[in-house]
Backbone:
């Protein structure tokens, strides 16, 4: 590798992201110190030449950018052509073509773009019935919105953001690094303008150059029928605005559904556990079942067995994406065996067992209990 030469920024004693004014100031200071007419140091002549050369490159936006991209190879046309890493290439524009597909020069390069705003999340609680039937909700939240003083530019009234002097509006800077494999071009967001391509020289006093202020926003959100716990509704462009005119993010409304006191939900299906007695199961009855459309009378047929499922078709939850389609309500019949019996009930059950020819009851229990 042929680059034993010092870094131009280092020669002037500035950061890579230094502004034009900082570079100029650094050059003046160094030049005053090392001017051969002033300095008695024998190395002053060479040092002054070095400082001057560095300034010639870094004070010229185009040459500075080429230096950022390719190092000395990009700016050393007068002193022996491209560096070692670019052997075999004819010159600067060939190098550029090889790397970037022919977009040499500034005009065709990508422009900087403003950063997009953040996405927001809003937690919305709704009732079980609202989730099943759908609803509309008004929500209110605080959000970073366009600063009205500067119309979102971030610049003081009467001024405008200017093209970033460091990246010439491209929003990115390229630097060259020497590696085992040759020179590597590193592209990164311009540190001066944060990739936006523009900088605000005199910031707006209301938003301090951000282009945004926090404001209250109210929205009506349509909640589709069939929405479930944990679902999110995305409202594009209702999130935070980006700084200095950047596009807005999205608002995600995270839906939380309150549980129903007696219905269980699994997707589009609803479940209800109906407790009936032995007599009701054996003789049949009618029971009242809660549904999302109100209570409904359901027939329990004579001879209904424990764990029987009665399906009420279309009484479940609407499909979120198939309009008109609804799930079912499943009535699960739980036959309850009595744990306490009155004297009369016991006698009747014993009579029932005797009639059925069954061995039932504990001998001596009646006497023991004093019945
Ligand atoms: Zn920039
Ligand atoms: Zn402002």
Residues:
């Amino acid at each position: 590798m042929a680059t034993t030469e010092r870094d131009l920024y280092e020669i002037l004693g500035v950061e890579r992201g230094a502004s034009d004014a900082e570079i100029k100031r650094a050059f003046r200071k160094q030049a005053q110190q090392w001017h051969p007419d002033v300095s008695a140091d024998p190395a002053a002549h060479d040092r002054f030449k070095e400082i001057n050369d560095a300034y010639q490159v870094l004070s010229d936006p185009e040459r500075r950018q080429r230096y950022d991209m390719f190092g000395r190879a990009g700016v050393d046309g007068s002193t022996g052509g491209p560096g070692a890493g670019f052997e075999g290439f004819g010159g600067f524009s060939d190098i550029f073509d090889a790397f970037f597909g022919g977009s040499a020069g500034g005009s065709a390069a990508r422009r900087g773009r403003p950063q997009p705003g953040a996405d927001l999340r809003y937690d919305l609680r709704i009732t079980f019935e609202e989730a099943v039937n759908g609803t509309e909700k008004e929500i209110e939240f605080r959000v970073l919105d366009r600063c009205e003083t500067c119309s979102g530019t971030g610049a003081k009234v009467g001024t405008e953001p200017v093209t970033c002097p460091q990246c010439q509006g491209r929003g990115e800077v390229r630097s060259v690094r020497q590696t085992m494999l040759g020179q590597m071009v590193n592209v990164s967001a311009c540190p001066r303008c944060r990739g936006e391509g523009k900088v605000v020289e005199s910031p707006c006093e209301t938003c301090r150059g951000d282009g945004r202020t926090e404001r209250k926003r109210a929205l009506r959100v349509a909640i589709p029928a069939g929405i479930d716990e944990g679902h999110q509704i995305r409202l594009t462009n209702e999130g935070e605005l980006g700084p200095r005119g950047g596009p807005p993010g999205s608002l995600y409304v995270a839906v939380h559904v309150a549980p129903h006191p007696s219905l269980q939900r699994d997707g589009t299906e609803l479940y209800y556990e109906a407790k009936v007695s032995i007599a009701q199961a054996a003789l049949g009855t009618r029971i009242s079942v809660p549904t999302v459309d109100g209570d409904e009378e359901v027939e329990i047929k004579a001879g209904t067995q424990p764990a029987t499922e009665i399906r009420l078709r279309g009484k479940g939850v609407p499909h979120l994406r198939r309009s008109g389609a609804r799930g079912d309500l499943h009535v699960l019949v739980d036959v309850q065996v009595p744990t306490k019996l009155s004297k009369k009930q016991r006698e009747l059950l014993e009579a029932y067992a005797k009639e059925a020819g069954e061995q039932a009851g504990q001998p001596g229990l009646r006497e023991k209990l004093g019945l």
